[in-house]
Here is the input.
Amino acid sequence: MASPNGGDDFESSLLSFEKLDRASPDLWPEQLPGVADFAASCKNPITNSPPKWMAELESEDIEMLKELGSLTTANLMEKVKGLQNLAYQLGLEEFREMTRGKFLNILERPKK
Here is the structure.
């Protein structure tokens, strides 16, 4: 049976007291080029203009975003399931209409 302090002994055995010099760019190169520049640009003062993607939204879209943002995880999952079911039903309806169009020969190209 494990001792009550067994976990502490294991954790202390994993500790490393080695000092790493992170000042050298040769030892610690930027892993993703441009990240430092991006981070610096994010520190600029925030402007009052909305982001570009928000400028194209209508008030109805913004209300929908607010509504979805206020949902709990369970409610959001229900909403997603409802959308999946709706997409499935639309697919079935489209299949029926395409089959109907095929039988009525309205999808064939006119012969020249």
Observations:
- The chain has a mean pLDDT of 80.
- The two ends are 88 Å apart (CA to CA).
